[in-house]
Amino acid sequence: MTERLSNATLGRLPAGVARPPYDRSRLTPGLVHLGVGAFHRAHQAVCTEAALASEPDGALDWGIVGASLRSPATRAALAPQDGLYSLAVRDGLGERLAVVGALLDVLVLPGSAEALLGRMADPATRIVGLTVTEKGYHLDPASGALDLAAPAVAADLASPRAPGSVHGLIVEALRRRRAAGLAPFAVLSSDNLSDNGRVLRRAVLAFAGALDPELARWIEGEAAFPSTMVDRITPATTEADRLRIDRALGLEDAWPVVTEPFSQWVIEDDFPLGRPAWEAGGAVFSSDIGAWERMKLRMLNGAHSAIAYLGQLKGHPTVDAAVADPEIAGLVEGLWAETAGTFAAPSDPAAYARALMARFRNPALGHRTAQIAMDGSQKLPPRLLAPLRDRLAKGAPCGHLTTAVGAWMAYVVVRIRAGGAAALDDPLADKIAARLAGVDRTPAALVGALLSLEAVFGRDLADSETLREALVEAVERYLGGYA
Ligand code: CS2
């Protein structure tokens, strides 16, 4: 049997596999990260690793304690490996492997909630990061405000000392810090939300305010919520990845992470208690995160969602297969032409678009369109509906944006018809299925039912006749075979 990757076996890795160049036995925790999935381990943890490696003889006090909010799987895989995992960077030219050492431990909720709160309230913890995907924020997607009635949020408001949501955890840990006379940690969202720091701050303040206005005022005055733009395409790891990587390591790694060569992190430099030297990993500090975020969300993620829905409707399982289809490549180019004018670009959008298409064509990632298609109700507003709104207001053509939104609608209808709400991976699946139940099968009726989802489209988009007509046309085109 192959031995497991661990501190004890690190020395046996083949020469070509990079490993932590610092003394791991001296590494102590400084960061807590909520949502320690593949993306965090391919991105922020790798920048942290570079920061640690940049001062191997310095104070190694920025180790990461991760928390899994929903599943014990990450801990089960990584605890026997002392938190070590390998990162496989892949493109058409091959695969580069590195073992990352920055992650010290993984705690799983709900069992370890108390240990996690203790760690967050510890004076050594100076930053609490989050990658919990859009739905982990429990926001009303159209307005961006915290949904105080969402079951996870309501449950934490009812028993705030034993929280399970990100807001509940952050507020309870901050309450304990305040009681202990400690300054707050910086709260760092690395999710694909527009103005993620600002949005999270508003949500945390709303949550705290509902419990204890004094505490909310303290958080408002003292705590930093820097915004960030994060980017690295990181598909879910497959069994084939595991087997291939184990062979290359000569050791078993139960949960390696596969990613692309490109990585970008733009961060607002607001860390009152200090931060790792993330620039060593290529992070860039800027005071204008909004511009970076809008370009990335509207161009990369907007195109991704369009590719995912159209790819699913046309039977393309992966992004590279989908963009090899001229109709989809054409839609993506058209989408970029429409979105380009809707934000103040921090760099040349044409060059950015060319680089994006090359990344989408990466043949070694196998990024599944079904994975990106998840949670459309949360993803559409910042990616496609925000630029659509801007263009509609100017009376500018938006045929490609509406085609992409229409593809989402057609996809939703196809899934729900095939297997009911359970077949749609989306936090609003039940609501969406209920809207569609009993309506006519005509494209106009289906579009009407979906546009009435105020949490997604707001009032304004539902009221736009121009949009409605364009969507009916798109849905007709893609649902033709199914209607
Ligand atoms: C993707 C993103 O799954 C999705 O919705 O669009 O995860 C995307 O791969 C990342 O944002 C790239 O940085």
From TrEMBL:
<dbReference type="GO" id="GO:0016616">
    <property type="term" value="F:oxidoreductase activity, acting on the CH-OH group of donors, NAD or NADP as acceptor"/>
</dbReference>
<feature type="domain" description="Mannitol dehydrogenase N-terminal">
    <location>
        <begin position="31"/>
        <end position="279"/>
    </location>
</feature>
<dbReference type="InterPro" id="IPR050988">
    <property type="entry name" value="Mannitol_DH/Oxidoreductase"/>
</dbReference>
<dbReference type="InterPro" id="IPR036291">
    <property type="entry name" value="NAD(P)-bd_dom_sf"/>
</dbReference>
<feature type="domain" description="Mannitol dehydrogenase C-terminal">
    <location>
        <begin position="288"/>
        <end position="478"/>
    </location>
</feature>
<keyword id="KW-0560">Oxidoreductase</keyword>
<dbReference type="InterPro" id="IPR013328">
    <property type="entry name" value="6PGD_dom2"/>
</dbReference>
<protein>
    <submittedName>
        <fullName>Fructuronate reductase</fullName>
    </submittedName>
</protein>
<dbReference type="InterPro" id="IPR013118">
    <property type="entry name" value="Mannitol_DH_C"/>
</dbReference>
<dbReference type="InterPro" id="IPR000669">
    <property type="entry name" value="Mannitol_DH"/>
</dbReference>
<dbReference type="Pfam" id="PF01232">
    <property type="entry name" value="Mannitol_dh"/>
</dbReference>
<dbReference type="InterPro" id="IPR013131">
    <property type="entry name" value="Mannitol_DH_N"/>
</dbReference>
<dbReference type="InterPro" id="IPR008927">
    <property type="entry name" value="6-PGluconate_DH-like_C_sf"/>
</dbReference>
<dbReference type="Pfam" id="PF08125">
    <property type="entry name" value="Mannitol_dh_C"/>
</dbReference>
